[in-house]
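Feature request, filed as a ticket because there's no other form

It would be nice if the structure record came with a short human-readable summary line next to the C-alpha cells. Right now we just get the raw output. Example of a typical job, pasted below so the devs can see what we mean:
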Amino acid sequence: MSGTTLALLRDLLLALCLIGLWSVLGFYIVLTVAGFLYSREARRRGAPDPEEWPGVSILVPAYNEEIVMVGTIESLLHLDYPRDRMEVIVIDDSSTDRTRRVVEHMMATDRRLKLVAIPPGLGGRGKSHALNQGVKHARYELIAVYDADNAPEPHALRGLVAELMQDDRLAAAVGKVRTLNRTTNLLTRCISIEFISFQWAVQAGRWRLLGLSSLPGTNYVIRREVLERAGGWDVDAIADDAELTVRLGQEGYHVKFVPYAVTWEPEPQHWGVWLRQRLRWARGGTYVVRKFLPRLRRLRRRELVLEVLHLLTIYHVFFLLVLLSDLIFLAGLIAGIAVGPIHSPLLILWVLAFTIFVLQLAIGLAIEGENTPLNLLVATAMYFTYCQLWIYVCAKAHWLDVVRQERLSWEKTVRVPLAARPSGR
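Raw output as currently delivered:
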C-alpha cells in the first residue's frame, strides 16, 4: 500500500473520529449553556416552603466507615429541618471496624439517630442491598440518601423537599455534590472540575432542555411509594443510581436537579483509589446499558432513550473515538515521513474540538465562581492527562465484562477523613 493511500486512509479515519467527537462535544456544549441558564433561573426563583414540612427518613449505608461516621452524622443531625419531622438511619452493613460502636455512642445523645445492623454473613452485598434493608425500618414517606462521608450544607434537605412537594410528577429531587478536598492535590482538583462540569451540563442542562436528570449516589430525596412501585434498588447494579433512574422514568416520573441543595464529600487523593472507583462506575454503567439497550423500543419516554444512549456514549462510543484519534495522531507522529503530515483542515478541526472541551469546563467553573487561573490551567491540561486515563478505565471494564465475564461486585472506595465542615454559601 502506497504512502499516499496510507495518508488518505489515516486522514479519513481521523475525519470520522473528529466528526464523532464534534457531535459529542457539540451536544455537551449545548447542555452546558442550558445549564448556565438554569443556574440563573434556579438562583432567582428557588422553591417556596410547603405549608407543612413532611417527615423524612435519611438513609446512610455504612461499611467500615469509622473514619468519617462522626462527622457525617453531625452534619445530618444539624440540617435545618424540623427536628420532629426527620430521622437518620445508619445501616451498618456488617462492618468489621468500630462503625457500629460510633453510631451507638451517638444515639445516646439524639433520639433521631437509629441503627440498622445487618448481621455478619448477610451483609457486605453492596449499597443497593443495604438501602433495601434500611428502607424497611424507615418511618416516613420521603426517603433521603446520603453517603457515609457526606457533609450536606444546612439547607440542603429543605431545598430538596421543597422542590419535591411542588410537583407530583417528581419521583425524586437531587442536589449538587461538591469536592471538599478539591485543593489537596492535582487529582482532587481534576475531580472537582469534572464534577462541576458534569453537573452543570448533564444534570442542569438536561433538566433545562429535556426535563431529565439522573439520580446521583448521594444527596437526593425520593418518594417511598414510587421507590417501592419501581421495586427498590437493584442489588445486581453497582451503579444503583443510574439503573434506578431509568426504572423511575418507566413509571412516568421525573427526577429534578436542584443546584442550591449542596453536599460536600472528600474524593480520592491517590490515583490507585480513583482508578478502582472509576472502574466500578464504568462497569456499573455498562450493566445499565446491557440491561436496558435490548428494551430500548419499549421505553415509554424519549428522555429514557437518551439516558441509555448517554451511558452508551460515555462508556463505549466516546471511549472508542478518543482511542482511535489518539492512535491515529501517534501513528502520524511516528510515521510522518512515510505517510505524510496530517492535513491542516483536520488539525484545525481537532484544535477547535479541544477548545470547545476547555470552554465547557470553563463555563462550569465560572458558574461556581471557581474560574481561577490555576483551575483554568488545570482544565486545559485535563484532556491530555486526566481524561486520557478514561481510556484505560473503559478498556479494563470491557476486558472484565466481555472477555473475562467477571461477576460484578461492590468495592468500597477508600475514605478520606472529613477535615472541614462547610457552613453553606
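Something like this underneath would help us a lot:
The chain has a mean pLDDT of 85.
The chain has one domain: 1-425.
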